[in-house]
Backbone:
């Protein structure tokens, strides 16, 4: 029997440490040379260091940053400093910011068309300049005035008792009007045009892609407020207000499915036109009147086929899994945005991509 000495133990420990270090430094799969690759990303707020570490562990290296909360605290003269600090923080964790989401600065007055909207527009122009200066070239924004993405229930049992969300139009109607009362679609259209004419020329000059998110749910009116991003035709109308290569789409695919659109056909059309800048990858069961969120791997739509369509259309922008159910042991305080379901989604997405030999980063 051989005798294990203290020196043997030390050498073994050092070898193990070296192996762990090498493993930690091993890069995630990169796109093949000359081929576009989908950038898998997760939405993150500054300071979510536990999520930074988790993403590093599962091989996700791109972030979609939510910066509104931080920028709302400072004057526009400080936007660049705040954004640079956020970028440095995320870069130190191995994350590249591929875009920002949910408006980079407050924009509710613009969407509602009320007093103070011109001040918000000045802030918007300033933040686009700051984003361009640090090299962030995509903004995901929405036009859901008064009410953001909306569900009537957030504790619907899913597979194994996981908690998902549901929208039911009849239940929404029972909740009545919001504090804003009734706002017709014509007013929302006018507010959109006002925004486009002020912001799009700046975005075009800076080469910042403006990726418009659909209404969620895509139904109008919702509790008295008109919604306009409820069909592919309305999207085309928006993109024709100020035509240009920076005026495009966040393709939140489940919303187009809820609209009753042929999501595959719409995606192909806009990919050909180079109008899809960002993808929200998720699935639902139902229609715009009544639907519930599913896991990414048990919904009714062919998710692998959607990934193939994006790849075949040359999409190489950021894509993130959206609205995952809340799993055992997690808080449901922020429905749709707990992390365990997202981890499952990333694994599922990577499996679908690998099986079809679709490059990703």
Residues:
């Amino acid at each position: 029997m051989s005798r294990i000495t203290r020196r043997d133990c030390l050498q073994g420990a050092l070898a193990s440490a070296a192996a762990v270090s090498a493993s930690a430094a091993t890069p995630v799969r990169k796109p093949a040379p000359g081929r576009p690759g989908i950038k898998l990303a997760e939405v993150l707020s500054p300071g979510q260091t536990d999520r930074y570490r988790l993403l590093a562990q599962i091989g996700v290296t791109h972030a979609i940053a939510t910066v509104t909360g931080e920028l709302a605290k400072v004057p526009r003269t400080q936007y660049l400093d705040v954004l640079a600090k956020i970028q440095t923080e995320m870069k130190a964790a191995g994350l590249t910011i591929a875009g920002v989401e949910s408006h980079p600065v407050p924009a509710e007055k613009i969407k509602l068309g009320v007093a103070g909207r011109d001040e918000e527009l000045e802030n918007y122009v300033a933040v686009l300049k700051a984003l361009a200066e640090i090299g962030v070239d995509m903004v995901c924004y929405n036009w859901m005035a008064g009410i953001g993405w909306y569900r009537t229930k957030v504790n619907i049992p899913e597979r194994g008792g996981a908690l998902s969300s549901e929208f039911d139009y009849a239940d929404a109607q029972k909740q009545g009007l919001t504090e804003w009362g009734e706002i017709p679609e014509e007013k929302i259209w006018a507010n959109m045009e006002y925004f486009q004419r002020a912001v799009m020329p700046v975005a075009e000059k800076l080469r910042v892609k403006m990726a418009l998110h659909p209404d969620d749910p895509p139904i109008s009116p919702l509790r008295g407020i008109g919604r306009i991003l409820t069909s592919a035709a309305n999207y085309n109308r928006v993109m024709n207000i100020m035509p240009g290569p920076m005026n495009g789409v966040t393709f939140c695919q489940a919303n187009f499915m809820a609209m009753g659109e042929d999501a595959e056909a719409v995606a192909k059309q806009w990919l050909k036109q180079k109008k899809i800048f960002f993808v929200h990858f998720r699935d639902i069961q139902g229609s715009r009147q009544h639907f519930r969120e599913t896991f990414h791997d048990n919904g009714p739509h062919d998710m692998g086929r959607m990934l193939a369509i994006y790849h075949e259309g040359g999409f190489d922008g950021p894509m993130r899994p959206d609205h995952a159910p809340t799993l055992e042991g997690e808080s449901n305080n922020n429905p749709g945005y707990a992390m365990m379901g997202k981890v499952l989604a990333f694994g599922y997405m990577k499996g679908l991509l690998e099986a079809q030999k679709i490059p990703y980063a």
Notes: The CA atoms of residues 107 and 120 lie 6 Å apart. Residues 1-28 have pLDDT under 50 and may be disordered. The two ends are 49 Å apart (CA to CA).
